[in-house]
Write a structure and sequence with these properties.
The protein is an all-alpha fold and about 450 residues long. The chain contains 17 helices and two strands.
Length: about 450
Amino acid sequence: MRDYLLTLCVTAAVTYLLTGPVRKFAIASGAMPEIRARDVHREPTPRLGGIAMFFGLCAGLLVADHLENLNSVFELSNEPRALLSGAALIWIIGVLDDKFEIDALIKLGGQMIAAGVMVVQGLTILWIPVPGVGTVSLTSWQGTLLTVALVVITINAVNFVDGLDGLAAGMVCIAAAAFFIYAYRIWVSYGIEAAAPASLFTAILMGMCLGFLPHNMHPARIFMGDSGSMLIGLVLAAAAISVTGQVDMDALRLYEGGAREATHAALPVFIPLLLPLTIIAIPVADLLLAIVRRTWKGQSPFAADRGHLHHRLLEIGHSHSRAVLIMYFWSALIAFGVVAYSVHSVIWIVLVVVGLSAVGLVLLLLPRFTPRAPGWAESFVPPRYRRRRRARQTAAAGQPGPAASDTDEPRVPVGVGVSGVNGATAVGARAGLPERDRAGSRR
């Protein structure tokens, strides 16, 4: 576990430290597209955040290759090299799209080629466990088609959900954490070496997301762009493919008997058959709804619009930060609920999930709120998140500034926008004018 933690920290540190220079490079290179009708942000923001995330991925793999407990992943498997090859290709396509806005069909073709590159190097689905049937071996063509489909679906699901500051990185980080728990348990508890690459991939993916999030939280200073969203989508898909189609269920030996009985008895353990889709259930649902919505209107499925789930949360009155937190909550509830069921298939897990769902619905109906770092944690967060300290500094300087309880929407100063004499009086009082000159009606 310490080696995984070290790999995660190195990946996060490299991603975090490189994001600042990458932002300056994006501004200098003109990778700051104009505000579009579907965009939520109000100022041009640089993209290309995926550059820092890709180098964080490279750093994580390099460190893991030199760690004694993780070096065997590179010696016994070609999957890390396959991941790096596919990630490099999809990253280049994303960088070109962030700068030049390439066609959607070209991006789709690039995603399929990147998936094919990983398949050629051995990162593919070999078999799938089917409850009541047993382990079903796939032919070369079946495995290739299923692998490419899973990669393309995951990449586009993550890309579609990347519409609010910090949303995609946070949701993928939650998914990676749930997947890491599952893969690490399969490797350590059952001694299945085939689950080691997935554990490594998810640890690195968490580091990539955690290193980028401080720069991407609302208000974002930089966007990951397609170079980042497609990259983290591919890494998540690679982890799912590795643990789903590479781990032989018979090696777990949970049930002594035929393959059919073993599969049925080990059903909770073979949740990874559905885990990749349940972990990204919300992005996949958003993807499917977008395709249906656009096709129903006679538009291209790749045509952008403002009908995504996060857009609808904003339209019904939620603040930016709260909409992101709601998406985080439902993603974590689904992902960790499925992982918990894979450990123990008992009724209390279902009851806990139902209870948390009820809590989520209550929070969803509460008045809007603004999350902020507590006072004791302000020394550990970037200055832009230290709301209370910033409020004290502006108050000491005698300048009007946001209070500690401000929301992430701009507030109207006291007296401004208030009709009548009272509003004019408030403005005049703040400006220090004599009472007879404060209201026009008293002149």
